[in-house]
Structures are given as structure tokens and as C-alpha cells.
Automatic annotation (TrEMBL):
Residue segments, region Disordered: 440-462
InterPro entries: FAD-bd (IPR002938), FAD/NAD-bd_sf (IPR036188), Geranylgeranyl_reductase (IPR050407)
Domain of life: Bacteria
Biased amino acid composition, Basic and acidic residues: 453-462
Origin species: Nocardia goodfellowii
Gene3D superfamilies reported for this sequence: FAD/NAD(P)-binding domain
PANTHER family linked to this entry: CONDITIONED MEDIUM FACTOR RECEPTOR 1 (PTHR42685:SF22), GERANYLGERANYL DIPHOSPHATE REDUCTASE (PTHR42685)
Coiled-coil positions: none
Name of the molecule in the record: Flavin-dependent dehydrogenase
Pfam hit, one: FAD_binding_3
Domain FAD-binding: 7-342
Amino acid sequence: MSAVETADAIVVGARCAGSAAAIALARAGRRVIALDSAHFPSDTVSTHLLWPAGVAELRPLGAAAAVEQLGAPHLTLARAGGSGFCVTSPFSPVDGIDYALCVRRPGLDAALVGTARSAGAEIRERVKVGELVWDSGRVSGVRYTDRAGTTIELRAPLVIGADGRRSTVARLVGADRPYLSQPSGRDCYFAYWRDGDSAQRHIAAQWRAGSDLGTAFPCDDGLVLSLVQPPAEPVQPGPGHAETRYLAALDRLPDLAARLAGCTRVGRVRAATGIVSYFRRSSGPGWALPGDSGHFKDPVTAQGIRDALRYGRRLGEAVAPVLHDPAVLDRVLLEWERERAAECLDMYQWTNRLARAEPMRPLEIELYRAAQRQAALALAATEIFSRTTTPKQLLSPTRVTALTANAMLRGAPAAVLWNLGQELRDAAAEWLQARTAAQAIPRHLAPTPRQSTQDRDPVSRS
């Protein structure tokens, strides 16, 4: 083993959440070292759509220009089709951004890593973290293996585990079991197509047919990302399984198939199955879990990158001034964790509803019908995905009452009443989830002894 190195903070995983945290820390003058097993640019399984709120997160990181240079078209319209209705809406601006972007991960992640390096963060690639270093019950560093097979010990007051759903850091601190979780009713398959329809390069589109859902998101290099989410199958994927499932779903989604007419597929079909959305405990003595390592939502609402950028950055900004005061650091970490959980719970629950792989319910169909006629309602529905309107604001008691009355007038009252009963059961279940989340994260920490100044600030910044 080589000599022990020191830093102000260690980030395990240098993609969206990790780069965002590293940028914030480096800009605050902290010595931050990020470790990743990949060599950038590097791909990863991801549907990579950024709604306007996600695009807006690139600006405070200083990465907006680098990402725009990748050439993804500005998606200025959202389109949602289902049950014979088609809802089209522009995007409300978020911090001046009124468009979405679909940027493939090799370019996006490389742009973020480059921004982190420019800010002063050190990024070490092709390394594997195997152990955490502990000191009196606190995480105080990591041991990792570099490309040459050398084990290096790196110490810092804070280890940030931004290493994804299968997080090594979460496992090593004992936080890998979630306190809230919901298996998805959908599998996910996606592929890229050489886009043959220049007239739709500004539209982010989604269609539903029966229990299937499919999307077409134009992205960089003249491609369109087409994703399908059919009902999950309880079988282990075998050779050719993803291709078969993808093509079968396209057959059941005629509007998506029509969008891809004249397009040529590029590369293989990729798959994400066995999807589970969750919240994990995401902070503790000397550690934190931003990004998918601490909280993950089904890709059906395309929220992961936005949340990774936002809460990675806010973590870095919050802890930078207090890294060498353990008691204050732990309180700040807890406040950050509580904030993220509170701000993300509504979208988590909305996402889980869309991930159930059910045919559209009567009230949902009535919402589409109304939104097709009412531009303000269509805009409000789109704003949910940018987090400027909440699901509860969209589906207020007044609106649900009106949708119910209109659906009843159109016939099938038994189905409408059954749907209304489901909504009430869902609301009760979501209330219980909120209680569970509130109880899982303590409001206050027990007092911890303050360390000496010498112990608190051992890192040289030369």
C-alpha cells in the first residue's frame, strides 16, 4: 500500500451527482478528489432526458455551454397521446429555460467531468473503491485500487457516495436497504434511431396504448431516443430477449411506430429490468449519498439526472464551509437529506403511479380529454415534469370532482366510481409513505464530542 493521502472531501462516482458535488466543493476552495471506475467519455444505461428544470441545473454548475455544444436539439414542445387524445404544450420557463434536452450520457458525463476538472477537482479514472476507512465510528476515507493494482488509502472528513443504485458506499455504511421502496410494474427497453423526420426534432413525445408506454426524444448526433416500457415480466432476460420485447411493444404502440417510420435504428436494444424505486438513508457520520445511490425513481418520468445535478450541487455547497467540524457537518448532512426527501416525495409517488403499467383509468382519460381542449391545463400537466407544479396541485379536489362528474356523464359510472375508490386508496397509501419517510430520518442528532482543532483540520491545502 502506498502512503496515505489526504483531501477535504472524497467523491466516489464522477457522473452527474458526483461531478455536481465535486464542482461545488472545488469552487468553494476545497480539495476534492473524485474516483470512478470508468474512463470518460463513457456510456451508462440511462434514458437521459432533461426537462427544463434539469437543463436549468446545468447553469449554476457552469456546464451549460459544454452540454449545449454537444448539439442536442432544443425540445420546445411536449406531446402526450393516449386513448384517442393528443395533448401538446410548450414548456413554462424555469430560470429562463423553456426547452428540454436529450443528451447521450457519454457526452453529458464527459462535459460534467471536464467542468469539475476546470473548477479544480481532481478526477481519478479506472479505479475501484473496495473499503471505507473508519475512525471512532465515523467514515474517514476510502481504500481503492488503481489501474496498476496498487491499493491507495485516501482520507477526508467526508466521503460522498455518488456511485449509483448498486452503491458500494451505501452497502459499506449499511444504508443499502431502503426505508421506502416500490417495484415498478414496467420493464424498460430503449434504442437509438437515425432520425428521418426533421419536422419533429423539437418535440418530446410520449404515447400510451393499453398497458404500454413509449417515447421519442430527439437527441444529439441526429438521433432519436425511443424508449418503451411494457408491463414487467417475471423472467430472466436471455439472448435476444430485449430485441423481442422492444419490437413487440412497438407493434402495440402504433403512434410511436409511425414516428419512427423513415428512421433507421442504430445499435442494439438496451434493457433495464427488475426496476425498483426507493429512498435510502442518505447521510451519517462522515458520509452522504446523492444521486441514485440514495434515491431512485422509475425512468417513466425522467427525473434522475435533474435530481442528481441539483442535490449533488446543493450537498457540495452546504458542506463546504463545515467539513472540518464533525458535529456541524453531521447536522448539515441531515438537513440536506431531509430537504431532498421532502422535495422529492411527491414526484416519487407520481412516478410510481405511472409505473404501474395499467391501462389509462377513466379519470386519467378525462384529464387528457380536458387538456386537449384547455391550453392552461395542458401546460400545468407538463409543469409537473419540471417540478413547477405538483401532482396535488394539478389534481386538486376541485379538479378531481369536475373530472369525475364529466366522466360520469359520459357513461360507465361503475368504472368511474371504482377509479375514484382507487384514488382514495392511493391517497391513503401515500400519506402512510409520507409518515414513514418522516420517521426514517431523525429531526435532530445526538450531541457528539467536538474534536480538537488539530484533529478537525489535518488537510494541507498547498
